[in-house]
Amino acid sequence: MHLQLVPWLTAATLCVTLTGICSSSTLSTVSDADRIVSLPGQPKVCFSQYAGYITVHKKQQRDLFYYFAEAEADPRSKPLVLWLNGGPGCSSVGIGAFSEHGPFKPSGDVLRKNDYSWNKEANMLYLESPAGVGFSYSVNNSYYISVDDKMTAKDNLAFLRNWFKKFPEYKNRDLFITGESYAGHYVPQLAKLIVQSKLFNLKGIAIGNPLLEYNTDFNSRAEFLWSHGLISDATYKSFNTICNFSQIIRQRWSDALTPGCSHVLSEALREISNFVDGYDVTLDVCLSTVSSQSAVLNKPQETEKIDVCVPEETVKYLNRKEVQEALHARLVGISRWTTCSSVLKYEMQNLETPTVPILGELVKSGIHVLVYSGDQDAAIPFIGTRTIVNKLAKQLGLNTTVPYSVWFEERQVAGWTQVYGDKLSYATIRGASHEAPFSQPERSLVLFSSFLGGGPLPEGLLSESAVRNNHINITWS
Ligand SMILES: *[C@@H]1O[C@H](CO)[C@@H](O)[C@H](O)[C@H]1NC(C)=O
Ligand SMILES: *[C@@H]1O[C@H](CO)[C@@H](O)[C@H](O)[C@H]1NC(C)=O
Ligand SMILES: *[C@@H]1O[C@H](CO)[C@@H](O)[C@H](O)[C@H]1NC(C)=O
Ligand SMILES: *[C@@H]1O[C@H](CO)[C@@H](O)[C@H](O)[C@H]1NC(C)=O
After folding, report:
1. Which of 39, 41, 337, 389 can bridge 426 by disulfide, Cβ–Cβ 3.0-4.6 Å?
2. Domain shared by 375 and 452, yes or no
3. Which are the catalytic amino acids?
4. Which interval of the chain is the signal sequence (predicted)?
5. Residue pLDDT, tens place only, 438-455
6. Same structural domain for residues 93 and 236?
7. Residue 426 Cα to ligand 3 middle (Å)
8. Which pLDDT belongs to residue 440?
9. Measured from the CB, is residue 469 less than 6 Å from ligand 4?
10. Domain for residue 77, yes or no?
């Protein structure tokens, strides 16, 4: 067994908490330059953080930025998890790490400890990808003119190869790749390259509210909006007879909405209003972005557990000079860090490429696949995702091993799940947004932890005994 408390550890890797002394596990000197001494305003913690660049193309000077938070305790025994946000063109550091499941969330001038951070369960690696996103860049900016899924997957693989050179102790660790939204493309595509190249120890992937199949995903928006009371019967009928969402999105890329589609869309937007977040139709919105006057009139409740303004706070935080210095980050070819890229031109045709077949290939090669949905998201609603996973299971000839049923966090229903065979699972997270851990951090952490444990949600979470005392007899009459 490795002795952790060795006297030659430097002060930076030693700290004292209420529970005693702890130490960092990563002693590699290659990664030392990327070690974060401390982030401005952060509380004292006992795990190591790293941030910096990994070159994916030397000649073109294309460097990808990462932030790595080792597990809070015993990092050597925990898996490595790569997290990717979508967009295409949005930042995994800004959204994933600082707004969803990283160790800290910005609040004013300081960082608050996130009680449900995913580095309680794993060593978390956040990558800003492709180049042009966040702090990642290409000095040859012709690269930005047209980036596609293939280029992104290739660079992500090159990133991992080179990252492991910096962190060799993680090379043979169990690896999981996770992400959400457009990462429904990035994650399976990268996983496929890893399986093909037989590199690394890939165990599973998890994707939340993922774009998997253009028509099914986007056209399920109308039913979701209608069934949640956000649009009228008449507008729902228009989506089904005059113009559907897949047409609207396609036309919007080419800046050419037909009058019919334009009419349906504007009716829907009027009904939904500007005061509802499409990424979580029940969550309050951050009022400073709606109007500063209403923020004064309607102070957020003191008891509100979710700070809905965290994404805005993150933009401010990551644009502070001293924060960028602490992160070893550079602004190359841009003057500000933005949540989603202002320079990247992504090949939007790629949105229409279905990635479900890749999920099938991964399941067949023994990789665990978890698809989950925050069930309050109107952007990529669970309605489409559930259909897609069901259809995939049928195509693969997988029998249901856990029938559609509730799962629990503490004594409340945290969502529904269905498991097909022993490698493919679907789960909803009840009351969660497009960025599920943003609005349901506890439930998301339970799901994440059970996913890393392998297989379906643990029996305990499904067992009747867990809620026997909490059982309600609803007659539905
Ligand atoms: C810059 O990148 C473009 C597109 O990738 C490439 O065609 C060009 O040769 C590169 N320029 C230089 C100077 O390397
Ligand atoms: C959306 O509309 C197009 C054009 O009318 C149609 O071809 C397509 O089948 C529709 N999709 C769905 C899922 O209704
Ligand atoms: C699935 O269930 C059917 C019917 O019970 C059974 O015949 C078949 O062998 C099962 N397939 C697998 C892969 O277990
Ligand atoms: C619910 O119904 C079951 C079966 O009818 C009964 O045994 C149980 O006591 C009921 N529980 C409550 C809380 O009413």
Report:
1. 389
2. yes
3. 181, 377, 434
4. 1-24
5. 999 999 999 999 999 875
6. no
7. 19
8. 95
9. no
10. yes
pLDDT over 70 percentage in the chain: 85
- Ligand (nearest to CA of 469): 4
Q: Is 13 exposed, middle or buried (0-12, 13-18, 19+ CB in 10 A)?
A: middle
Indicate if 200 and 230 belong to the same structural domain: no
Minimal-distance CA residue to ligand 1 atom 3: 142
Write the residue with the smallest CA distance to atom 5 of ligand 1. Answer: 143
Mutate to test the pocket of ligand 4, among 470, 473, 475 (most ligand atoms within 8 A of CB): 473
Whether residue 445 is found in the same domain as residue 426: yes
Residue 472 CA: which ligand 4 atom is closest? 13
Residue among 162, 246, 268, 224 nearest 376 (CA) = 224
Pocket lining: 19 vs ligand 4, CB cutoff 6 Å: no
Q: If you measure from the C-alpha of residue 221 to the centroid of ligand 2, how many angstroms do you get, rounded to a whole number?
A: 13
Instruction: Please give the distance of CA 111 from its chain centroid, rounded to a whole number.
Output: 20
**In which band, very low, low, confident or very high, does the pLDDT at 294 lie, cut at 50, 70 and 90?**
very low
> 88 in a domain, yes or no?
yes
- For residue 473, which atom of ligand 4 is closest to its CA? 1
- Ligand 4: does its nearest atom lie under 6 Å from the Cβ of 473? yes
* Confidence at 293, pLDDT banded by 50, 70, 90: very low
Among 31-45, 79-93, 262-276, 456-470, which stretch is predicted with the lowest mean pLDDT? 456-470
pTM over 0.85: yes
Closest CA relative to residue 210, chosen from 93, 312, 88, 311: 88
Asked if residue 219 has its Cβ within 6 Å of ligand 2, the reply is yes
Q: What is the mean pLDDT of the chain?
A: 88
- Give the Å distance between the CA of 44 and the centre of ligand 4: 49
Query: Distance of alpha carbon 330 from its chain centroid, rounded?
Result: 23
Is there a contact between 415 and 448 (Cβ–Cβ < 8 Å)?
no
Q: How far is the CA of 241 from the centre of ligand 2 (A)?
A: 9
Higher-scoring residue by pLDDT: 402, 398: 398
Task: For ligand 4, say whether the CB of 477 is within 6 Å of any of its atoms.
Answer: no
The helix/strand/coil state of 222 is helix
Same-domain check for residues 71 and 94: yes
245: CA distance to ligand 2 center in Å? 9
**Residues 6 or more apart whose Cβ sits within 8 Å of residue 437:** 100, 101, 116, 118, 444, 445, 448
pLDDT score of 263: 96
Say if residue 226 is in the same domain as residue 158. Answer: no
* Residue 462 pLDDT: 53
* pLDDT tens digits, one per residue of 143-176: 999 999 999 999 999 999 999 999 999 999 999 9
Report pLDDT digits (tens) over 61-105.
Answer: 999 999 999 999 999 999 999 999 999 999 999 999 999 999 999
Residue 379's domain spans which residues? 21-215+348-468
- Taking the CA of residue 246 as reference, the ligand 2 atom at the shortest distance is 1
Say if residue 88 is preceded by a cis peptide, omega within 30 of 0: yes
Q: Which atom of ligand 1 is nearest to the CA of 60?
A: 14
Q: Who has greater pLDDT, 472 or 322?
A: 322
CA–CA gap between residue 67 and residue 286 (Å, rounded): 26
Q: Which two tokens stand for residue 71?
A: 């597990």
